[in-house]
Amino acid sequence: MTTRRIFTGRLLCTSMALSAAMALAPSLATAQSKIKVAAIYTVPFEQQWVSRIHKALKAAESRGEIEYKASENVSNADYERVMREYATGGNQLILGEAFAVEAAARKVAKDFPKTSFLLGSSGKPQAPNFSVFDNYIQEPAYLSGMIAGGMTKSNKIGMVGGFPIPEVNRLMHAFMAGAKETNPKVEFTITFINSWFDPPKAKEATFAMIDKGADVLYAERFGVSDAAKEKGKLAIGNVINTQEQYPDTVVASAIWHMEPSIDRALKLVKEGKFTPEDYGPYSMMKHKGSELAPLGTFEKKVPADIVAKVKAKEADILAGKFTVKVDDSQPKSTAK
Questions:
Q1: Where are the domains of the chain?
Q2: What is the pTM of this model?
Q3: Residues near 66 by Cβ (< 8 Å), separated by ≥ 6?
Q4: 308-322, pLDDT tens digit by residue?
Q5: CB-based burial label for 334 (10 Å; 0-12, 13-18, 19+)
Q6: If one looks up domain 138-256+290-318 in CATH, what number appears?
Q7: For the segment 148-201, what is each residue's pLDDT rounded down to a tens digit?
Q8: Is the Cα torsion angle 4, 7, 9, 15 positive or negative in sign?
């Protein structure tokens, strides 16, 4: 009897353990199915460009698709070390911006051929595992330029950029071309502050442009809209929409959506099909990678004929009837 009771008890315990394990199985499977993702940023999370990547990854994290770790404000000198730590730590996908650390980033990718890398870069993809992306948002930049051309009273537009690299240059050229379409008389003053995140420096550069007659400012960097607001001038946003913070200043913005690129990369990593590729085109309007932000507080302030022209051009872009020229050369001031 005693032996039988012990045996029965053991069976019951075993059955309970199996039931508990089965109950846990789905959650364990879910945890194991999550892709480990890491990102390295040389600037704060709130910086325009980085904020869009971070936002898309946080969305994937909230959906339960990934485990996400990120480092912000990583110096160029420290970039390779942090990247190696993430690769050694078993992350399957590593993201970031490699513009100033191309050689180091590509070296790490070579040393970890089984890890997938997707980095903002002016260079080409590199076999077997290094893909590149870029904010190909020249289409909404062109449209925002059309609006700027229709809003300036002085025919003088000021443009403040970070560095004169292709990623910045092409957006400025697209914006300028759009402004010229609606206002052939417009002139541009262009300044690069040689920093990705220095709002006070961008602000000072903007004040100088306003002093020379600019009444519409292209805010490629943080700080420009602050200066425009202080002086009662208008601003055109880039990458993110800050109209909520500047309701009487920011007229329109060219918005970047990184989600199509991130979602594609995650799908390919999960399927084991990630290959070196240029993700730039996934930032274009046809892939929902970019758009012109709603006019919002300026809906009734932008001239109706300008709005009509912008809507017609937007339709032509989406229909493939109009292609915004990509010009990666450094733009020059045209103001006399």
A1: 34-133, 138-256+290-318
A2: 0.85
A3: 34, 35, 36, 37, 57, 60, 266
A4: 999 999 999 999 999
A5: middle
A6: 3.40.50.2300
A7: 999 999 999 999 999 998 889 999 999 999 999 999 999 999 999 998 888 999
A8: negative
